[in-house]
Predict the 3D structure of the following.
Amino acid sequence: MITSLLIANRGEIACRVIRTARELGVRTVAVYSDADAKAMHVRMADEAVHIGPSPARESYLVGERIIAAAKETGAEAIHPGYGFLSENADFAEAVIDAGLIWVGPKPASIRAMGLKDAAKKLMSAAGVPVTPGYLGEDQSPDRLQAEADAIGYPVLIKAVAGGGGKGMRRVDAAADFLDALDSCKREAASSFGDDRVLLEKYILSPRHIEVQVFGDAHGNVVHLFERDCSLQRRHQKVIEEAPAPGMDEATREAVCGAAVRAAQAVDYEGAGTIEFIADASEGLRADRIWFMEMNTRLQVEHPVTEEITGQDLVEWQLRVASGEPLPLSQDELVIDGHAVEARLYAEDPARGFLPSTGVLEHFDLGESERIETGVEEGDAISPFYDPMIAKLIAWGEDRDEAIDRLAEVLEGVEVWPVRTNAGFLANALLDEEFIEARLDTGFIERKLDELVPTGEADDSIRGAAAVVALAQAEADQDFSGLAGFRLNAAPRFRVALGQGGTFVEADPANASELVSGFRDEERIVIFHEGEAHEFALAARGSVGASAGSGALLAPMPGKVTSVEVSFGESVTKGQRLLTLEAMKMEHAMLAPFDGRVTELNVAAGQQVQVDAVLAKVEANA
């Protein structure tokens, strides 16, 4: 068994690998950037090495520094996690050339599956069904147009070196093909340095089915059954489950058998995933499921496979990398129950899923189900990396039980002041079509308006705010914030919604028992069904800040790059007052009406949090 391991990654996957390594008695080494100096994975590891500035291209993507860190600390092996350098064949080769153990497939296997067109040709030769399409060398627009016409519309144009939805265009009519081709090739060249494309028949009722495979250095390859990852937003997975609902045994045997043949075709070692696209217009059928691509690494969604098989896939990785045979044979692997995973992101669905960054001042995900995270209360969500906070996984005897248990976890999420998609995920899980397994990859985009929470507080939430205010005030013997409180009378409290700018009467009698919350010196925060509702504590007669009251609120955390007015200055409607830079985009903050600047709370270069009052304009009389 490997005795010491460097994890070339960060966040929850680094913590996940460290946990299993610790159980196996393997010493662990973490690497970290400036932004991650105090991160959980750094705290968990036996040793940690700084590898560069915060941007990933200057730290986690610099293979030479990672290999040097392994040498410096005496690490015997490198585990890449997922993302970053995990599917970089050159890095894998450099690790091996440095005399270290690479916890992953052979570089040749990574290369074989790295280009979609070559991989599909290889799979076709191995007897793995591939989506009808064109994989030819002739990339002339006329040839591609002719092939698209022959396949029949709609067709999908995909960059040969693509991924993550980039370099991909759906074309519904022949007249639109050439414009879409030009756009796709430009994006592919910009993103991947390769503008070659392939064509596929576009599946109108597509489901994303993938199979977990594992190989060892002794020629053994097994599958650990399938997962359904059809719930996606902008080609990124949101909710995953195993096994795939509606998968009968005959279809499972055919699809999983094809996945094993695919892995054998590239002499595969370690953990990998064979991804298929299924035409589910008539349910899952073996003759309507086709190979898409192979991910030559551990997947984000691997916990659902672990939950239904009872296996630790990271342990399997370490044993295989140590030269051991696979822990189990195919006949020894069975499905037990059902598991569902949701990806909890630091983002605000109500604001177009804008990323949300900052310190996790309040952070509670519960303890009833499996939580995979790389943060805890007091840690910060950085703008430099993927905004995933945690993976929440629930197992049940059947699918309904797993869904109910995960929905309960999501509805109990308490995160503040960073915004999350917990309420959105809960709505998706509890949607009637999802419960009935009427799934396809367009599910979320089609139902987006229904799934995004309104963010509005009802009487029960306002009542809960009053209860929290009363309980905290009584504990502190501090009634200064309880405007309207009277002895010997039903307590009623006057509070201001953070963005509403108006006072509301909050009656504790209306409070729901299904909420929780807290109060600090400035606000009350109530958590309900995965959403956080903020109530500002205001003195009698004060007015809350809102766009309607002339206040300019920061739409997301960011940096003020310029202030173009001064206090007391007269302004006209639409005049730029200041500029905020957030997530590499500039946001002009404009005067909402003619008036005068009565508050100016920021200066150029200042960092601000979401909903901060940047300035305020008082309307002309």
In short: Confidence is low (pLDDT under 50) at residues 477-502, 538-548.
